[in-house]
Design a protein that fits this description.
Elements lengths: L6 H14 L13 H14 L2 H6 L14 H14 L4 E4 L3 E2 L5 E9 L2 E11 L6 E6 L5 H4 L14
Antiparallel strand pairs: 1-3, 2-3, 3-4, 4-5
């Protein structure tokens, strides 16, 4: 007699297997310029493209996806996607930051909400590629807690 696994067990196995994989960091990571890193990160967040976000999120040493497990990476990126939901964005002029970093004021608009936050980019010394190192999530809290936010199945909100 052939034994069939319930779909839930199969999905759990896929998630666990995916969490154990680590990206090799191959391919194109980072961007040629500092403002491109911010724009690409925001565009990827808007499109909910985890792979593209992870390609431009990192520090002076390497992309973040090369430092954390796939599961942790996806969890962190999903939170960022929620915070960065926007209809329009406007990138300000860069200001110099510490150790060659560039700091941008970015205005995000979501419906009738408007918020301004800062993004910090850093250049990888080995590859000369630019990465979004961090952004300030505090001004964006209302973007994630919108009552009209899309609900994912199993989130508990009906």
């Amino acid at each position: 007699m052939r034994r069939v696994l319930p779909i839930g067990a199969l999905l759990l196995a896929v998630v666990v297997a995916g969490a154990c994989r680590r990206s090799t960091g191959g391919g194109d990571t980072g961007t040629r310029t500092s403002p491109e890193a911010v724009v690409q990160f925001l565009d990827a967040a808007r499109a909910r493209d985890l792979d593209q976000m992870s390609a431009v999120w990192g520090n002076a040493a390497r992309p973040t996806r090369d430092e954390v497990s796939r599961q942790e990476l996806e969890q962190r990126l999903l939170v960022m996607i929620c915070l960065l939901r926007h209809d329009e964005s406007r990138l300000g002029v860069a200001s110099p930051g510490e150790a060659g970093r560039q700091v941008y004021r970015v205005e995000l608009k979501q419906g009738d909400k408007l918020a301004t936050t800062t993004f910090t980019t850093v250049q990888n010394a080995r590859t000369n590629r630019w990465f979004v190192e961090e952004f300030d999530p505090r001004p964006l809290r209302d973007f994630c807690s919108s009552p009209n936010a899309p609900v994912r199945p199993g989130s508990g909100r009906d």
